[in-house]
Specification:
The structure holds 2 protein chains of 2 kinds. Chain A is an all-alpha fold. Chain A has helices spanning 2-8, 11-36, 44-60, 65-89, 94-116, 143-147, 152-170, 172-182, 184-189, 194-220, 232-242, 247-271, 277-296. Classes of the chains: A mainly alpha, B alpha/beta. Chain A binds chain B through residues 10-13, 16, 19-20, 110, 119-123, 125, 216, 220-223, 225-228, 230, 261-262, 265-266, 268-270, 272-273, 277-278, 281, and chain B through 42-47, 50, 53-54, 72, 157, 163, 188-194, 196-200, 202-204, 206-211, 221-222, 225, 239-241, 244, 326, 328.
Chain lengths: 314, 328
């Protein structure tokens, strides 16, 4: 029991939570934005992989870290254009298109990586984002080192979450996005062009996914491997449901998942001998499923999610 | 199941014959290097595959073989890749069948003229199907001997992928090495549950440092990043990580695939069946694994004691325990 308290009281745990959560926060917000406008974007896993690759590659070729992150976001946005063309303009199945985008984007990132980067024993490295101490706050006892010595993209992710919550619930544009996701015909009747809204939301959402992937190669680690995404994109898709399509809750959900993850790594270290490690490994997923089951009962799914909009059609 | 030595009498005789035969046959075959295909289930930067890839490239560079390869071949595609290379007239296929043990053996049965030698969890072989394991546990033991003398907190940690025998053996050997020189040291173990997630391995490493570890044995890439971030030392596995983490990784349990490759290529060149277990070529006395360390980081007497044991392993007078159970 005292060991558990030790874990909770450790600075390392809480700073790990924010670090692990960052790519999930960005990816979840991206997926959430797409779905709010009525488009499911299962391209996320591939888009995050491509973001990780292109962000890293840009920095490797001399761009600075922020430019790398921006390029990752732009590349994500381009995949968003592809996904919107398939699902919005052509009105194809969102599931199939999304999976297609994932397959294409992951393979394409592998291809580019292999063409451009020489094969080495271990892949080449860059100098990643360093922890950034926020003045005053970082010198607070306990809370300082636990929460305010993260890398810059982590702070950015949290700001984006709050910003997105504001945009979706407090601005006319947010209203238009929500309306398009609930009833595109009604939106059209109000003079909102659902096609434009969906394109915009999917492109912006995919850009966030690209940036989320880039966090892994620009801050969490300093190299790119083609197989490094390890299903983080799919976790984001589940977190959107957990969050009932609300950015604030998405932030909370990503932090919760990351908390379980950071917690289980510490539990393994402390109790590794007594309890099979698999039990700890699955805790984040089990607890997420439980939380999902509880939350999803009250979830309000955007009513037009996964329905292509065709003008003038009922 | 622990056996003393995997070299069976048959293998000794066979390798003896192979060795003898290869000297007879080599002049005939010298003009035609053996055609070898590598089928990698992961990208060739993955530590394990990088060892195969490097040995194969080196051998190709020396003109001993002709080398073609495929990487990131998924389990569902693996048998197809094997068939394609077999159809192309490749003489020797090397790679890994950890995920496709049964299918790989089926393909081998369909192409009896093609020699196949794959990394495997099983020792089951057939005429044209040989297996090998990546054993660098002896070197891990030696790295543990250095680490045990270096730790100030008396806590060391190991981060592994998944507790399969090959990885258990390695982490256990490291722990045994630590224990041999420092019986009071505590050894923390965690597994990431995935073979490839460097950011996660880094988080696991940080968790161990938070729990007091001041030397980390990184069975997977990513662990050393945690050590570097906190300014402690780390030990690498399979490949030499010192170049990548110069201030951090002071010792590596390096695995060399070359002795296995050379033995298999010699068998093929001699027209001999490759249906045997090539794992013994991973042993230190065969040059299959060795410690590579930065001198002067560990105390001089620790290095001296370690070198003494290393010499004993080479001479065959000391055997590093081979413990296959999941480390505690």
């Amino acid at each position: 029991m005292t060991q558990l308290i030790d874990i909770f009281a450790s600075i390392g745990l809480w700073s790990a939570v924010l670090r692990i959560a960052t790519p999930l926060i960005l990816g979840t917000l991206g997926a959430l934005l797409c779905e709010r406008s009525g488009v499911l974007n299962l391209g996320i896993e591939g888009i995050m992989t491509f973001g990780a690759m292109i962000g890293w590659l840009s920095v490797y070729h001399g761009a600075d870290l922020w430019t790398g992150l921006l390029i990752a976001a732009i590349a994500g946005g381009l995949f968003g254009v592809l996904h919107s063309f398939l699902t919005v303009t052509l009105g194809l199945s969102q599931h199939v298109s999304g999976l297609g985008v994932t397959l294409f984007a992951s393979s394409f990132s592998y291809y580019v990586f292999r063409m451009v980067v020489p094969v080495a024993n271990t892949p080449p490295t860059i100098v990643p984002f360093q922890p950034l101490d926020i003045p005053v706050l970082s010198s607070l006892p306990f809370f300082g080192p636990a929460f305010f010595t993260q890398t810059a993209p982590t702070y950015l992710a949290i700001i984006i979450a709050l910003l997105l919550a504001y945009i979706i619930f407090r601005t006319p544009m947010g209203l238009a996005i929500r309306m398009t996701g609930e009833n595109p015909h009604a939106a059209e009747a109000q003079g909102v062009n659902p096609m434009v809204i969906r394109y915009g939301a999917v492109i912006a959402g995919s850009a966030l996914m690209g940036a989320g992937g880039a966090f892994l190669t620009l801050a969490a680690f300093d190299s790119f491997f083609p197989t490094m995404m390890q299903g983080r994109g799919w976790i984001c898709i589940a977190l959107v449901v957990f969050a009932s399509w609300r950015p604030g809750r998405a932030l909370f959900g990503a932090l919760l998942f990351a908390f379980f993850e950071a917690f289980q790594l510490r539990m393994q270290t402390m109790l590794g001998g007594a309890v099979p490690y698999q039990l700890f490994l699955m805790t984040p997923y089990i607890l997420s499923i439980v939380a999902l089951a509880l939350m999803a009962r009250r979830a309000r799914v955007p009513q037009a999610l996964m329905q292509p909009y065709r003008r003038g059609e009922r | 199941m622990v056996r003393d030595l995997l070299i069976s009498r048959r293998a000794v005789i066979a390798s003896g014959i192979a060795l003898g035969a290869s000297t007879l046959v080599r002049p005939v075959h010298a003009s035609a290097p053996v055609k070898v295909a590598g089928i990698h289930a992961s990208p060739v930067e993955n530590a394990w595959n990088s060892r195969l890839h490097k040995a194969l490239l080196d051998a190709a560079g020396e003109g001993a073989i002709e080398y073609v390869f495929s990487e990131s071949v998924s389990g569902t595609d693996y048998p197809r890749a094997m068939r394609e290379y077999a159809e192309q007239g490749i003489q020797l296929i090397v790679g890994e069948c950890y995920a496709v043990e049964r299918e790989a053996r089926q393909v081998a049965a369909e192409y009896p003229q093609t020699s196949i030698v794959l990394g495997s969890s099983s020792e089951q072989t057939s005429d044209n199907f040989g297996v090998f394991g990546a054993w660098n546990y002896e070197a891990a033991y030696l790295a543990g001997m250095l680490s045990g003398k270096m730790t100030k907190t008396n806590v060391v940690g190991s981060v592994g992928a998944v507790p399969i025998p090959e990885i258990n053996m390695l982490i256990n050997a490291f722990a045994e090495g630590v224990k041999a020189v420092n019986p009071d040291a505590r050894h923390l173990v965690s597994f990431t549950g995935t073979f490839f997630d460097p950011p996660k391995a880094r988080e696991a490493g940080l968790a161990q440092i938070d729990a007091g570890a001041d030397i980390l044995f990184g069975e997977r890439i990513g662990t050393a990043d945690a050590a570097r971030q906190r300014g402690i030392r780390s030990v690498g596995s399979l490949t030499d990580y010192t170049e990548r983490y110069p201030e951090t990784v002071f010792a590596n349990a390096v695995w060399n695939f070359r002795p296995i490759l050379d033995a298999a290529v010699a068998d093929v060149a001699a027209g001999k069946a490759v249906g045997r277990n090539y794992t013994p070529y991973s042993l230190m006395k065969e040059g299959g694994n060795d410690i590579s360390y930065v001198k002067g980081v560990a105390p001089a007497e620790a290095e001296e004691a370690m070198e003494k044991v290393r010499a004993e392993i080479m001479a065959g007078t000391f055997e590093v325990p081979r413990l296959l159970d999941a480390p505690k």
